[in-house]
Amino acid sequence: MAKCQNLADVRENIDRLDRQIVPLLAERADYVRQAAGFKQTKAAVVDQDRIEAIVLKVRHMAMEESCDPDVIERIYRSMIDAFIIFESREWMHLHETKE
Ligand SMILES: O=C(O)C(=O)C[C@]1(C(=O)O)C=C[C@@H](O)C=C1
C-alpha cells in the first residue's frame, strides 16, 4: 500500500480502486440477477441465513487484512440491502413476463 504525500495522492488511489470496484459490483449484480431466476417466490429473495453467512465470512476476511470488521460488515449489509431491492425488481420482471 502506497504512503501518500497529500490529499490529491490519496484521492488518486481511491479513484483507482473505485475503477476496480465498480466492474466487480457490476459482475456481482449480474449473478444476483441470475439468482432471481432460480427463486420460486418473491419472499425467497431475502435469505437471512445466507446474508449472515456472508457477513461472517467478510468479517473474517477483513481481520486477515487488518481492516475494521465493523466497517466491512456495514458496507456489506448496505450493499446486500441494495441488491435485494434490485433482485426483487428483477424477480418481478422475470416472473411477470413468464406466462
Ligand atoms: O445468495 C442469494 O440468494 C442472493 O440472492 C444474493 C444475495 C447477495 O447479494 O449476496 C442477495 C440477496 C439474498 O438475500 C442473499 C444474498
Automatic annotation (TrEMBL):
SMART domains to which the protein is assigned, alphabetical: CM_2
SUPFAM superfamilies named among the record's database cross-references: Chorismate mutase II
EC category: isomerase
One Pfam family this sequence matches: CM_2
Ranges in coiled-coil conformation: none
Signal peptide boundaries: none
InterPro entries: Chorismate_II_sf (IPR036263), Chorismate_mutase-related (IPR051331), CM_dom_sf (IPR036979), CM_II_prokaryot (IPR002701)
GO molecular function, one term: chorismate mutase activity
Statement: the UniProt record of this protein carries the keyword Repeat: no
Protein name: chorismate mutase
Organism: Magnetospirillum sulfuroxidans
